[in-house]
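Appendix B. Chain record.
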Amino acid sequence: MSTLESIIWHVLGYAAMPVIILTGFLMVAVVSLWILSIGKDKPGR
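Structure tokens predicted for this chain:
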């Protein structure tokens, strides 16, 4: 493996975990807000 390939794989490896964590956090936030919006009282009640 060339040096360039090694650098690319290291960057991908180190970037993967924050991307996975942030994506998971955003998905949980979106689903939570969606569930809360379904459960809220209708206007005029």
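Further analysis of this model is presented in Appendix C.
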